[in-house]
Design goal:
Blueprint (H helix, E strand, L loop, with lengths): L4 E7 L5 E8 L8 H15 L4 E7 L3 H9 L3 E5 L2 E10 L1
Parallel strand pairs: 2-3
Antiparallel strand pairs: 1-2, 3-5, 4-5
Length: about 90
């Protein structure tokens, strides 16, 4: 067996919002797996009753930022770090 992707949702300190994280193996990127995993995370976060979901991505990761926008995330500057963007979506 070989792990090709990992996705998770973790309750943040507010208890009402959650952070998501996703990693896809390089050779599996661009095949729609990331989109399917994030869509599943959105569904799980809604079912758990979270009001919003957020995650961080490097500013140069244009494919992730574009996918986030397609899936309804707003892309914001991460305060204090010009190399990182915050993706936020209300649920």
């Amino acid at each position: 067996e070989k792990q090709i992707g990992v996705a998770r949702v973790i309750r943040d300190g507010s208890g009402q919002d959650c952070e998501f994280a996703i990693v896809i193996a390089d050779e599996w990127q661009g095949r729609g797996l990331g989109r399917r995993l994030i869509e599943a995370l959105i569904g799980e976060a809604r079912q758990a009753g979270y009001r919003s979901m957020w995650g961080l991505a490097f500013a140069h990761n244009t494919r992730m930022l574009a996918l986030g926008r397609v899936l309804g995330f707003e892309v914001e500057q991460e305060p204090g770090d010009a190399t990182v963007r915050r993706l936020v979506r209300r649920l």
